[in-house]
Write a structure and sequence with these properties.
Blueprint (H helix, E strand, L loop, with lengths): L9 H11 L6 H7 L3 H6 L10 H22 L5 H12 L1 H11 L9 H5 L6 H20 L6 H18 L9 H9 L7 E9 L6 E8 L2 E8 L2 H15 L6
Antiparallel strand pairs: 1-2, 2-3
């Protein structure tokens, strides 16, 4: 499909399918997933199959299910609340738009003239919606042709999810225990919270930090991490547990 958003060719569709890692039996499903409402609205006679809004609705649910099952398998020690926050960080608009950019999805979108002119191909909301629509298209196409739908979606989406997780220095960053701990401390007047680095080790390019969380100079948590922030989060997590506050 051309960057003008006005035409498409089989060669372009095949290139996108190779990038996705899935060959559609119904090419129309893929086309609909790439069709923004601004494009269909400009064409008075309508677009076969319509735009991608209904597919986006389904794709959101399928994505949530696939990622939830993955997290349950791989993060067996996390509580429900922690799993919920972790999943949210992996399927939010920012994350999905990053996945879409890695895929180069913006190049293939069918956009109305105005939306295309206003940098719609790089807009996070449009990219994330289209990415979810592609997920739904894969799900429907695979299910209509003897598969369970979900397995094909998992093969497509999980490499992006795993890469997103790998880029984080520590999964604990997702849970923002520092904010949780600050909220606990603020409930009592006069209490002071600070984080103190008590040890550093390793070369500059691969340091390890040990941090204490202190309330009025009393140690309430310790943590280790490859960055000061990760170590502070780990110390805050230990302190939150000390206060007996659940994460569910």
């Amino acid at each position: 499909m051309s960057r003008r958003g006005a035409s498409s060719t089989p060669g372009d569709t095949e290139r996108l399918e190779r990038a996705i890692g899935y060959t559609f039996h119904d090419k129309g499903l893929l086309l609909r997933a790439l069709t923004h409402s601004s494009y269909s609205n400009e064409r008075k006679s309508g677009v076969p199959g319509g735009n991608n809004e209904r597919l986006e609705f389904l794709g959101d649910s399928v994505l949530s299910l696939v990622v939830s099952e993955y997290l349950i398998r791989c993060y067996g020690t996390l509580q429900e609340g922690e799993l919920t926050r972790l999943r949210a960080s992996l399927v939010c608009e920012d994350a999905l738009s990053r996945y879409a950019r890695k895929l180069g999805l913006g190049e293939y979108l069918l956009l109305g003239h105005g939306e295309d002119k206003n940098n719609g191909r790089n807009r996070a909301s449009i990219l994330s919606d289209a990415f979810e629509a592609v997920i739904a298209a894969i799900y429907i196409d695979d299910e209509n042709n003897g598969g369970d739908g979900k397995s094909a979606v998992a093969r497509f989406i999980l490499p992006y999810v795993e890469a997103e997780l790998k880029e984080k220095s520590d999964a604990i960053d997702y849970f923002d225990y520092k904010t949780m701990l600050q909220q606990i401390i603020q409930q009592a007047e006069g209490e002071r919270l600070e984080y103190v680095v008590i040890a550093e080790s390793g070369p500059d390019h691969d340091k390890t930090f040990e941090v204490e969380a202190r309330m009025n100079s009393n140690v309430i948590g310790r943590g280790v991490g490859r960055t000061k922030r990760a170590a502070e989060q780990a110390a805050a997590a230990e302190a939150v547990k000390l206060f007996g506050v659940g994460t569910e």
